[in-house]
Design brief:
Length: 313
């Protein structure tokens, strides 16, 4: 295992104030790794049409207590207990350095056999081949994952604080860019226990905390990765919502960008978590809207409505 210690910090005890939430669900990575992850998943989507995401459940930064629990489950499995995935000895996991990420979105019905270990994995070959060909360009490595039989486990090998290599779509391509500031935004009504209802044909805008005013998602001008997160429940199967970003100029004139459709599953649940790379200039504001298809059969409830904006420089 590669030791990815950094900053004189303690494995499993890194303050979240030193990290970046890359999903809006408390999936924290070291800032350089976070920047590279955002570039990589956006470029992968552009090439394949698939979004990769942090897997549910402590898939990025991991506390010592969480690693203790993972390791105990793994030791129990080795002694004949229920299956548990490989877990590093507490205090040595690169999840504890916030420089490892367990991903989802690569899965599929294709098979791929590792020439190094001989293990066979079930994957979406279009996504998997892109990762194998390009992940190293963003500083990510899969050697530890392959050794442990975990297709999902990837590690950022780039030293913290170094510049990030990656392209930005749209109007600017800032090669040698590094993460500068994180602007987290959460809709206060959706965060309440009852969430925000959205009837067929109606639209919601992400609101400022404790107000009914629209939340500007960005701060200083510059190149951004903007990552909205929307989840809902109570829809009919097949109902849909559309997420869009609204860019406003200095005069307040808005234009619509990056529409993404989310479709309710058999249980009536919807989840959307894309990311977009865009240059902003002085006077710009950015807002996030969700609109329910007017043909929807039921009024659903938005339970997560948030957006993370990451400024680079």
């Amino acid at each position: 295992m590669i030791n990815l210690a950094w900053g004189g910090l303690t494995n499993g005890a890194i303050p979240t104030s030193r990290l970046v939430d890359v999903s809006g669900r408390e999936d924290y990575l070291e800032p350089t790794a976070a920047a590279q992850w955002l570039w990589m998943r956006t470029d992968l989507h552009a090439a394949t049409g698939v979004w990769i995401n942090p897997a549910p459940g402590s898939s990025c930064n991991r506390s010592r207590a969480t690693q203790d629990a993972f390791y105990a489950s793994y030791r129990s499995y080795l002694a004949g207990g229920p299956y548990a995935p490989v877990a590093a000895v507490p205090g040595t996991s690169n999840h504890g350095w916030a420089r490892a990420i367990d991903i989802t979105g690569y899965e599929g019905n294709d098979t791929w056999t590792s020439p190094r270990t001989g293990r066979t994995y079930r994957v979406n070959l279009r996504v998997w081949n892109w990762l194998l060909a390009h992940a190293h360009e963003y500083g990510f490595d899969w050697a530890t994952g392959d050794s442990s039989g975990e297709a999902w486990h990837w590690e950022s090998l780039t030293p913290p604080g170094t510049t990030v290599a990656g392209d930005i779509t749209g109007t600017v391509k800032p090669k040698g860019t590094k993460f500068m500031k994180h602007y987290p935004n959460t809709d206060w009504l959706a965060a309440k226990k009852e969430g925000r209802p959205i009837a067929p044909g109606t639209r919601l805008r992400l609101l400022k905390s404790n107000t009914n005013k629209a939340q500007n998602l960005i701060g200083n001008p510059g190149p951004y990765s903007i990552a909205p997160h929307v989840a809902g429940k109570g829809f009919a199967a097949g109902d849909s919502i559309q997420l869009t970003l609204k860019f406003a100029d200095a005069k307040g004139k808005e234009s619509t960008h990056y529409p993404v459709i989310g479709v309710a599953d058999a249980q009536g649940n919807i989840a959307i978590s894309p990311s977009f790379l865009r240059e902003t200039v002085s006077g710009n504001s950015v807002y996030c809207d969700v609109e329910a298809n007017k043909a929807n059969k039921k009024t659903g409830t938005i339970t997560l409505f948030a957006c993370d904006a990451y400024l680079f420089n």
